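Hi support team,

I'm filing this because I wasn't sure whether my run with iron/sulfur cluster finished correctly. The job status page said complete, but I'd like someone to confirm that the output block is well-formed before I use it downstream. Pasting the exact inputs I used:
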Amino acid sequence: MSESMPVEISPVYEGERIRKQDMYVELGGPKVEHKCELVLSRSMDEVEDGKVSIVGPDLNELKEGDSYPYAVLIEVAGKMVEKDLESVIERRVHDFSNYIEGYMHLNQRYDIWCRISKKAYNKGLNSFKWIGLALAKLYKAEMPFIEKIQTTFYTDPEKVKEVYEQALKVYEARDARARGMRDEDVDTFYSCVLCQSFAPQHVCIITPQRVSLCGAINWFDARAAARVDPKGPIIPVEKGECLDSIRGEYTGANEIVEKRSLGANKRFWLYSAFGFPHTSCGCFETILFYIPEVDGFGCVDRGFKTPTVNGLPFSSMATQVGGGIQTEGFLGIGMEYYRSPKFMQADGGWNRVVWIASTLRARIEDAIPAHLKDKIATEKEASDIESLKKFLVERGHPLAKKIEEMEAVKVEEEKPAEAVPAAMPGVTVQGLPLPAGGAGGGGMRITLKGAKVKIGQLIIKKD
Ligand code: SF4
Ligand code: ZN
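And here is everything the job wrote out:
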C-alpha cells in the first residue's frame, strides 16, 4: 500500500505464525499480566484523524527477545459511529493486525498476544507508527462509516495497567447490557461469519442470551453492526418458529446456519452441548468439555496453561473443538454465556458443571449459583478424574448419586469374567446374550477403543 510502509499489508498474511525463534519481541501474551485492546467511540472534535501516539518505549527501544505489557487504544468518530459499534470495530483489530506482514495478533480484549518478526523488524517495522497507520487505513477502507481514527500504543507498564483496568470496566458494561433480556423477547437473532477465514464452515448465532463464543459481540453489538454495514459479516436472522424451547432450536437459525455454512451444518441447538451443538471457530474464550466418567462438564479458559482434570490442556482440546465442525460434548463458548439463564439449559445447566479452571472461576464466580459454590472443583481440589469423583461425592454435588451408581455398575462390570459362576448361562445386555465364563471358555473381554457409547438403559439380569 503506502510507499513508505516498510512491510506489505495484505490478507495473505492472515495465517502467518511467528515462532519464538523468529520473533523480535512479544507484546502481551501469557508471560505478562496486563495487555488489552480497546476501541472507544468519541465525538468528531476529540479525534485527530490518522494520529498515532506511543506511550512508553517504541519498538526500536525494546530489548530483542523479551515480552512486554501492551495496550492498544483506538478512538473512532463519525456521524454513524455509536457506542454499540465499539465491540464490532474492536473485533476487527484481530484480522486487520494480521494483514500486516510480520505482525502476529492472537485473541481479543484482555488477552491479546502479539509478536513482531525479526524479518519484519529488519525490513523497517521498527515503530508502532507503522502499525497505527496500517490499521487506520484498513479501518477506513473496510468500515467507511469511520470518519476519523486515532491510535495509541502503550508499552509503559504503569500506563498499560491503567488502560487494562479501564478496559475491563468497559467490557463489563458492554456485557451487562444484554443481561436481563430474553431470547423469547426478540424476533431477530444475528449471525456472524467473520471467522470463516479460519474456519470456513463456522457460523455464529448471537442471541440476547447467548453471546458470541469470542465473547466480543453480544446481541446489541451485532444489531448495531448489521445496521451500519448490512453487507458485512454480521446479518440479522429472523428467528422463525421455535422448534424446541429447551434445546434452543429455531427454524430461522437453522436456515441461516445451513445457508452460511454452505450446507455443512443444518441444525443448531443453541442451549445444548449434545445433538446439534453450535460450532466453534478458534477464538473462543473458554471450552466446555464433557467428562463421561462423571457425566458432567468441565470448563477451562485460554489463560489456563496446565492440563485440565481430563489430562488435556486447553490447547489440545482447542484443536478438537474448533474448525466449524459440530463436536458433541465439546464447545467453545464466550464467558458471558456462563451468566445466561439459558446456559446449557437442555443439559442441566450449572447443575451439570463439575470442574472449572481457577483462572476461569475467578472471572465468572458471580455466575455460579449459590448452592453449587462449594460443590464445583478447580484444579486445586481435583487434578484428575479419581480425585474429582471423590470430591463430588463428598460435597454432595447434584451428580453425586449418579456417580455412585455409575461406580457401582463399573465395579460389577470389572469383575473378571472367570468369576461368573459356570452355572450362569448368560448375561443379557439390552436383549443381547453375551457368553458367560465357564463351560470350557476363559471368559470374554470386550474393549471399545475410541468409541462413543450412548446407553439409555443398562439392564443386567440373571436368566
Ligand atoms: Fe464473529 Fe463468531 Fe468469530 Fe466472534 S467468534 S468474530 S461472533 S464469527
Ligand atoms: Zn473465531
